[in-house]
TrEMBL record:
<dbReference type="InterPro" id="IPR014001">
    <property type="entry name" value="Helicase_ATP-bd"/>
</dbReference>
<keyword id="KW-0234">DNA repair</keyword>
<dbReference type="Pfam" id="PF19833">
    <property type="entry name" value="RecG_dom3_C"/>
</dbReference>
<dbReference type="InterPro" id="IPR012340">
    <property type="entry name" value="NA-bd_OB-fold"/>
</dbReference>
<dbReference type="Pfam" id="PF00270">
    <property type="entry name" value="DEAD"/>
</dbReference>
<dbReference type="GO" id="GO:0006281">
    <property type="term" value="P:DNA repair"/>
</dbReference>
<dbReference type="InterPro" id="IPR011545">
    <property type="entry name" value="DEAD/DEAH_box_helicase_dom"/>
</dbReference>
<dbReference type="InterPro" id="IPR033454">
    <property type="entry name" value="RecG_wedge"/>
</dbReference>
<feature type="domain" description="Helicase ATP-binding">
    <location>
        <begin position="282"/>
        <end position="443"/>
    </location>
</feature>
<dbReference type="GO" id="GO:0003677">
    <property type="term" value="F:DNA binding"/>
</dbReference>
<comment type="similarity">
    <text>Belongs to the helicase family. RecG subfamily.</text>
</comment>
<keyword id="KW-0227">DNA damage</keyword>
<keyword id="KW-0347">Helicase</keyword>
<protein>
    <recommendedName>
        <fullName>ATP-dependent DNA helicase RecG</fullName>
        <ecNumber>5.6.2.4</ecNumber>
    </recommendedName>
</protein>
<keyword id="KW-0238">DNA-binding</keyword>
<keyword id="KW-0233">DNA recombination</keyword>
<dbReference type="Pfam" id="PF00271">
    <property type="entry name" value="Helicase_C"/>
</dbReference>
């Protein structure tokens, strides 16, 4: 796979190779990310205009676009340059006027010779009760009627680029498109009735009606599938690469796991047991594990992670668990250390705060294998951190990690198995797009005995009532979080808002009752604020969204979120997930500032309706659209030109299994279909995949 296949050269050449397209236009098109004929090809019409010839304009309801045969009547040359030039025309039943501003008479005489027949097409409007068509889009002789497409595609535009130009340029690009060997699985193609690649492009650029423009039109579905398939093939290649690396077979004895399970006051849920079994099978296999554990807040991912880490220890090795923040790392430490102690396993924490002698001692204990499980922040992967025999890396809450970073992580240590945990339930189509190279375990069941959280919307005007109620709740021994608004994603402003709320609540409830935690506090202060709240010393914890993920204080049963309308749905769901963890009935109060936008209302309504994170995620996708849901740059989620993850979600699933099936049969992509798939990868600029094939 040395270079781009020759058949694709023209499509990747200069845009100016297209007829009638010069340097200046090429520059303008760059604003639409069109720099080569290939991009032109994948820029599909977003609308269409019906230009079927009708007998008369009489029955149409202006304003609308009509196409009609007319006899040209008198030209009315304006007396002044500021007045329009008018031409009366008559169709089979009525007369109307063509109107031209700043027109040149000689040009119009030639275009519309009096007494002759022409077919004209344009937008008709009523002006003083008379039909007018200003600057018709098309004027042709009756012989040339076919030059006006019965249904004209409408392309996205940028300043200085016209529909005519886009039409011509896309035709030019279509002429350049070579027929390509089929990369789609034959039976799939037949079952779906999809056209081949070139025919699909031709059809997508020549819609015959509005339904051809829909995301469900076969030509478009096929082209969308091509994009998804190329993406999934890249992920499947990455997966194959991972699995091919020599792994270590780590087989647990169950001894340590049993000690922990025996000491727990509850039984694992069926979903937890299933996930542990999947992980343990991966660990025991000779290839590398690359698995995602997805579970809603409170679904009990920590226990699954611990079991996995214990298997690593049972098998004679070490495990590491990395959290995105110091707070979460400490919390894991607090939750896991007593359990590890039950199993007689040494578990320690390493973060950026470890310095000097203490750090050196920990590093030495790690290198000798005395520390069997390490919990920490990114610090656990610093260069000078050496493990004695690292078998498993668990990455917690890393939904913002891209594929590339995950692969780097796997490169640490000899043959480390990787388990990524995410508490952000995302729609299946997105998780396939984002984590498609991984195997998936889902905790789709919550531990029993949870009391549902009552969610209520309260206008900010009533904040005094909320404070009064809170006072009563505190008197009953309950604890509350109070989350302050996220203002323009700026930590400094967040901090001020939180600080002010902290002061006002302290004034209301008294000294020592209210705590404060935000991202810019010195770490030690943050920890002690968290610790005081967890211990029940402080009753109210004012916070910014630093408490969003993972934080676990079961006695806290009230969550107040200020300016809830400014938060995203997923984030609100995460925040609410901080309560409802104990046996007491919990409440979530969403304080909003009226008036709310329609989407904000919809978001908050969904939140009131359900606590099912996966359902909330699907709704979020429907409201926001895929592009918005995850920061594209960090997520490694590509921007698709044609595919629409919202409406074509099911296709992603098919693309994944088809891509994996193709690689299973033809790992080096050498069969005829494999070779065709390589061309697709080049066509879709899946550089990473191409590199993977070259090294493989
Ligand atoms: P997650 O990380 O998925 O949000 P956690 O692992 O923090 O969830 O678990 C949430 C709470 O549920 C913890 O207090 C934990 O002890 C408890 N828990 C976990 N598994 C079970 C279970 N099978 N039955 C009852 N409680 C459980
Ligand atoms: Mg957790």
């Amino acid at each position: 796979m040395t270079g781009r296949p020759e058949v694709l050269f023209p499509l990747f050449g200069a845009l100016t190779a297209l007829k009638g397209l010069g340097d200046k236009t090429a520059q303008l098109l760059e604003h639409m990310a069109i720099t080569r004929p290939r991009d032109m090809l994948f820029t599909l019409p977003q609308g269409g205009i019906d230009r079927q010839v009708r007998a008369s304009i009489r029955d149409v309801v202006p304003p609308c676009t009509v196409t009609v045969a007319v006899t040209i009547g008198a030209h009315h040359v304006p007396a002044s340059k500021n007045r329009p030039y008018r031409v009366t025309v008559t169709d089979s039943e009525t007369s109307f006027q063509l109107v031209f501003f700043h027109a040149r008479g000689d040009f119009l005489q030639r275009l519309l010779p009096e007494g002759e027949r022409r077919i004209i097409s344009g937008r008709i409007e009523l002006f003083d009760g008379i039909g007018q068509m200003a600057h018709p889009d098309h004027v042709v002789t009756e012989d040339a009627a076919a030059d006006i497409p019965a249904f004209e595609p409408v392309y996205p535009l940028t300043a200085g680029v016209t529909q005519k130009l886009m039409y011509r340029a896309t035709r030019g690009a279509l002429d350049m498109a070579p027929p390509l060997a089929e990369w789609i699985d034959g039976p799939l193609l037949t079952r779906e009735g999809w056209p081949d690649w070139k025919a699909a492009l031709q059809a997508a650029h020549a819609p015959q009606s509005t339904s051809d423009l829909s995301a469900l039109a076969v030509a478009r579905v096929r082209l969308a599938y091509d994009e998804l398939f190329a993406h999934q093939l890249t992920l499947a290649l990455a997966r194959q690469q991972m699995r091919r690396k020599p792994g270590r077979a780590t087989v647990g004895t169950g001894v340590l796991q049993d000690r922990v399970l025996g000491a727990l006051p509850y039984k694992p849920t069926a979903a937890q047991s299933r996930s542990v079994a999947e992980i343990s099978a991966d660990l025991a296999a000779p290839h590398r594990m690359n698995r995602l554990l997805q579970g809603d807040v409170g679904s009990g991912k920590t226990l699954v992670a611990l079991m996995a880490l214990l298997i690593a220890v049972e098998g004679g090795g070490q495990g590491v668990m990395m959290a995105p923040t110091e707070i979460l790392a400490r919390q894991h430490l607090e939750g896991l250390q007593p359990l590890a102690a039950l199993a007689g396993v040494r578990l320690e924490i390493l973060t950026g705060r470890d310095k000097g002698k203490e750090r050196a001692a920990k590093l030495a204990a790690l290198a000798s294998g005395e520390i069997q499980i390490l919990v920490g922040t990114h610090a656990v992967f610093q260069k000078d951190v050496h493990f004695h025999d690292l078998r498993l890396a668990v990455v917690d809450e890393q939904h913002r990690f891209g594929v590339a970073q995950r692969m780097e992580l796997g490169a640490k240590g000899q043959a480390v198995d990787v388990l990524v945990m995410t508490a952000t339930p995302i729609p299946r189509s997105l998780s396939l797009a984002q984590f498609g190279e991984m195997d998936l375990s889902v905790l789709d069941e919550k531990p029993p005995g949870r009391t549902p959280v009552t969610t209520a919307l309260v206008s900010t005007d009533r904040v005094d009532e909320v404070i009064a109620k809170l006072r009563g709740a505190i008197a009953e021994g309950r604890q509350a979080y109070w989350v302050c608004p996220l203002v323009e994603e700026s930590e400094t402003i967040d901090m001020t808002a939180a600080d002010q709320r902290f002061k006002s609540l302290r004034a209301a409830f008294g000294e020592g009752v209210v705590g404060l935690v935000h991202g810019q506090m010195p770490p030690a202060e943050k920890d002690s604020a968290m610790a005081l709240f967890a211990a029940g010393e402080t009753k109210v914890l004012v916070a910014t969204t630093v408490i969003e993920v993972g934080v676990n204080v079961p006695n806290a049963s009230i969550m107040v979120i200020e300016r809830a309308e400014s938060f995203g749905l997923a984030q609100l769901h995460q925040l609410r997930g901080r309560v409802g963890r104990g046996s007491a009935a919990s409440t979530c109060l969403l304080l909003y500032q009226a008036p709310m936008s329609e989407t904000a209302q919809r978001r908050l309504a969904i939140l009131r309706e359900t606590e099912d994170g996966f359902r909330i995620a699907e709704e979020d996708l429907a409201i926001r659209g895929a592009g918005d849901m995850i920061g594209t740059a960090q997520s490694g989620l590509p921007r698709f030109r044609i595919a629409d993850l919202e409406r074509q979600a099911a296709l992603m699933e098919v693309a994944q299994s088809d891509a994996r099936a193709l690689l299973a049969m033809d790992p080096a992509l050498e069969s005829p279909r494999g070779k065709a798939a390589r061309v697709l990868l080049w066509l879709m600029e899946q550089d990473r995949a191409i590199r993977l094939i070259s090294v493989g």
